[in-house]
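Researcher: Please predict.
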Amino acid sequence: MEKIVVGYNPAANMLPMFYFLDRSDFKLEFVSGVPAVHNVLMAEGKLDMAPISAFSFGQHWDKYSLLADLSVSAKGPFGSLLLFSKFELPELDGRRVALTNTSASTVNMLKIILECFYHIKPVFKTMPPTLDKMLAEADAALLIADEALAGLARNNNDLFVYDVSQEWEKHTGLSMTFAVWAVSNSTLERFPSGVDYVHKQLLESKQKGLAHVDKIIDHCITNLGHDPKFWSVYFSQLRYGLEPDLLKGLNTYFRYCVDLGLLPAQPQLNICP
């Protein structure tokens, strides 16, 4: 039987979708990686489906479809998409800003926020996500996911910390979808029943994860630190569906990307049920 190759991301913000997923399922083959890795593997045709950066979907929308009711989204503070800065945001004009090399959506959202909303143009440099090394070479550092949470724990109030999702909501009033579940259109055409099978497994896993967040919180405390209150607030700020208001925020994000020349044209959101 043909196996479907699925991207697996163990980061905390993905756990409500993955924690209860049966990774021993003989019908599936899992490939672990951060969003940037999955972005590349999907583009190279080495994954059938994966949680990828929304920006990467925007780059390849004509080759992918979205799985309905699955995303990583937020309106307001996200808690793990953070800019650590030696200066306040308006003072970063012309200064060096280090960007994590592990994602694409947040990197480009930060560019939108700084250039379109604050009307400043820093000098950007992409680096591996190590806060101290980034700040040794730059005046601010953008981190996502578990590296951002580690940076937050390390910060001794010597840095300004800006939540990128909160900045987006402040200036647009909209939510933002940072990661989507993409499936290759070629896989969808070749093996629709397999795609449907995986989709159902993911939705069931998400449902269990959201119903048993306490187990996920215990896992995060053991592996990432912080206390139960921190994680309870953290997960309460995240959304994992793909409702109309999230699609509106995503389309607006893509429009800004087109305006800044980050994308050549407005992507179409093709959703498979």
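Model: The chain has two domains: 4-73+176-272, 81-172.
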